[in-house]
Amino acid sequence: MNILRIIEQLSEVDADVLGRFDSRRTVFKTLGNTAKMGALAAAPAFVASLFQKAYGQTTSTSVIDVLNYALTLELLEEDFYKKMVAAGQVPAGAPQGAINLILKHESAHVKLLTDTVTALKGTPKTGVKFKSSAFPADYATQLAYAQALEDTGVRAYKGQAGNLIGAMAGTTSLLQVALQIHSVEARHAAHIRTMRMQAPWIPAADSNLPAPLGPVYTGATREDNVMQAGVDVTKLGAGYSANDAAAAFDEILTMAEVTDSSRAGGLIQ
Amino acid sequence: MSNITKSGGDDAEFAKPLYTPIKRRSFFMYAGATAGATALLLSGCDDDDNNNSMDPGTVSLGSGDVGVLNYAYALEQLEAAFYAQVKATPAADFSAVEKDYFTQVAAHEAIHRDFFKAAINRDAPGKIIQDLTPVFTGVDFTKRASVLATAKTFEDLGVAAYNGAGKYLKTAAYLVVAGKIVSVEARHAAYVRDLIANGSFADDSIIDAATGLDKAMEPVDVISAAQPFIQQKIDASSVGK
């Protein structure tokens, strides 16, 4: 257990490592006390708690809030697909197979997130329903809403990844679990889009569609964005079209944007 | 790299060099003040961070955030090379729509490759890995089935790779960019899978039926799976460490 070397190595990749600790003075005072008391056995536990503090919750949004936010969206999706199955308009064969598979995943995500929030001693969100008055009567529009929900899910998970850096439950990285759900939502979105004869990825033009789809692709960073981390993607290599540059990256939506009444927030009962 | 514009605002974090020497001095100041106490903690340490000598032909992806970026860059190089070939010599039995879509996928992957190259050269000068040489001898680019089978392997592997490596990134801005890319890889994976068998975009062979989770793989396992397609020997053992 060499705390100094660990911190030094961390400082190589994270210049702000010392700034993450409550106060450097406190840290080393505590370290000193720990050593003086001869409680060396306690040192690993102390170091673990130190790093949990530094990296466990680096933002004001708590991990449980993020999980409950994800759970809200999963509950909304689950209820939407239940309503879709109940409406009985999904054609038999491949379409029914796809909708049933997606519903199965959303239910599994609901259970996983509910169990995780419970395990972390939080109160899991329950009772989120898709607004009955907004549920479309025809199959084609139901699919359009499904696309809106799936592409929103992709953008919403992406927007919260930073809040889960370092978050652990037991030995499980919550960030990894969120990523593992996130890519499933992207697979769903791709399939629903092809069911609607759309490209599986998001072309730049989608940012200008009418509701319910258009608002899903707008926000502070629109899906037709071509700037990534200060790099103009269209100018890379020999040059790329604005549409390819936009489609090669999915963008984030913030929590406020997702829960806005023009997006998922407006679809909750 | 005159085509790279320096960023501000939201991207300021990303623009920060990975290896910033600041704060070391103040750190050792505090370290010195408690040297007596910490000596006890130090006594149990071992010096095991000397690099083991490797085969001269081995490409090490490196450690820390830049190791993860190089890891992604290696995979994107492989995918970009594959789809460039698919685009250049499309299978005779591809439909017009499929040809069009694979041209778009080729552009996405080339963009990912070029983006990582630009970002690594900007943020970690001198740390980027060399250009890799793809080995596609097992792929019959004239046959749709062979191309799709290989594409499925690459896309599912790419998704699992990003899902497993995200936790090793310490810089939030890098994680966000990786997240922006992985969902596009997942869209590719779903598209390719549906071309092979409609409805297999997220079937039980790839998504855990009980948890609804996509695969996540560790860097060494991903590189081991990708190694047959790359001429250079790749060492991913220090990625994220």
Automatic annotation (TrEMBL), chain A:
CDD domains: Ferritin_like (cd00657). InterPro entries: Ferritin-like (IPR012347), Ferritin-like_SF (IPR009078). Pfam families: Ferritin_2. Transmembrane segments: none annotated. It comes from the Bacteria. This is Ferritin-like domain-containing protein. It comes from Hymenobacter taeanensis.
UniProtKB/TrEMBL annotation, chain B:
It holds the Pfam family Ferritin_2. InterPro entries: Ferritin-like_SF. CDD domains: Ferritin_like. This is Ferritin-like domain-containing protein.
